[in-house]
Amino acid sequence: MKIGIAISCALMLVFAAFIIVGSLEYPDKPSRETADPKVLKKVSFPSNLPQVAVLGEAGDADALYKQAIDLYKSRPSDFRPNSAPPLDKAQPMTDLLIQAMQAGAPRRPFLDKYVGQTLGKGHQLGDFLFDVGTSMQQEADRLRDAGEAERAILLVRAIFTLGLNCVNHCDRMWTRYYGLKLMEGVGIHLYNWGGKDEQLAAQFDPWVDPINMVKKNWDHKWKIITNQKPKVLGDVFNIIDNDEDMSWRAEALLQLCRFKHNPGHGGNLRKIENLAEQYSNSNEKQLSAAAKAVKRFTEDDLDKIIF
Description:
Layout lengths: L1 H23 L36 H14 L12 H17 L24 H18 L3 H21 L3 H21 L4 H7 L3 H19 L7 H9 L3 H9 L1 H4 L6 H15 L4 H12 L11
């Protein structure tokens, strides 16, 4: 009897020790990856860059972009990267992208309404930005080779403007980041054209360094928050609490959906739970929406993420 009681007491002491040790664990601290204050600065394009868009009569850009998305979703396989779409899809897509550019700025949050708080690309927008962005650049090549240089240049401007609209009029960093990559891709494509159009080069060339500057900062932080097993979660926590760009704070917060089921240790788990609770009551809509998504996210949802 006494032996049984002694064993029970010993087990209780071991269990209590685990609890105490767990409660003494602290969240990861930021590493040198985010130690430089420049990393957490808000970066954006200078206001004096040339306008690339060719504007026409004001219209409903959002409605036109929706038609473009619907056209893509009707048969995504027609918009394979590195090849021009079939003419029955390429021609109407060209018209829609050009008309959307000419209609003026879309309304915030623009394409975010198709993305919501989804991790990865398993949302209504899917691969639209990548597939249409790359395949329609191939269509611009086809138009140029066919002697329709003016329409080809308009299309290139329209693709660049789609990316810029994502950067300027979306809140989700996912959408803004892929918009930036689309802008970069257009710049590379124009470089491969050889710069024969002096007017086009004069408008696009000043964008090269600013795009590279923003992309360098964004690439660095994107790698940190989307790493499947970050060396330290402290950098993600640092971005959530201290980045000057609200989009980055919210995107990093949303990534805690993944990390709360693999936090590394109890200190990180408590930090994740505290952040989700803290920001779910935030007056900042982006932070509140991301925090509530973290609280809802279950381990079963991990298998539904499409990267």
